[in-house]
Design goal:
elongated, 4-stranded antiparallel β-sheet, 9 strands, Jelly Rolls, 23% helix
Length: 164
């Protein structure tokens, strides 16, 4: 029973490790409404563990409007590696009154390599552009089963040796 409890505790501690990856300040990148309203950024993730959960946060706002009224909203589709994760409205000015943050859970992230994050205006508008200022990824990795099995077998062997 002690062995099982210890294995569970080791697994729980390892699963609690999380990575935070950010593009940092992108400038911001402007998606011009008259040109279809598209912008993107790449993030490189170097995590050798598989599985897990992730959330992605986009910092956005309208670029050339401070008006927070619904007629100025631009609806934006968020895509990760070509897979849509949701649509949100960009209705606040990026500078004034300030950018907004929109988060999504995602299983579309590549565990290793470059991930492409795209924002596309669903209703591109000639006179209204939107800005992408930052992308943050929070990723909690789960070890692959073979690693946990090897850890468990080693622990069992060590406990047997100790009792003998």
């Amino acid at each position: 029973m002690k062995t099982l409890s210890l294995l569970f505790a080791l697994g729980a501690v390892h699963m609690a490790s999380a990575a935070f990856i950010s593009t940092g300040n992108l400038g911001p990148r402007i998606a011009v409404g008259a040109q279809g309203g598209v912008t993107s950024a790449e993030l490189d993730i170097n995590d050798l563990l598989v599985g897990g959960t992730s959330s992605v946060t986009f910092k956005t706002g309208t670029w050339n409007s401070e008006n927070d009224s619904p007629e100025n909203y631009i609806f934006v589709e968020a895509l990760i590696n070509g897979t849509s994760v949701g649509v949100f409205d960009v209705g606040r000015g990026y500078i004034l009154p300030g950018a907004t943050f929109t988060s999504y859970g995602s299983n579309s992230l590549l565990v290793q390599g470059k991930n492409l994050f795209e924002l596309k205006a669903v209703n591109p508008r000639v006179y209204y552009d939107f800005a992408l200022g930052q992308i943050d990824v929070r990723y909690t990795a789960v070890p692959e089963p073979a690693t946990m099995a090897a850890l468990g077998l080693g622990l069992v062997a060590a406990l047997r040796r100790r009792r003998a």
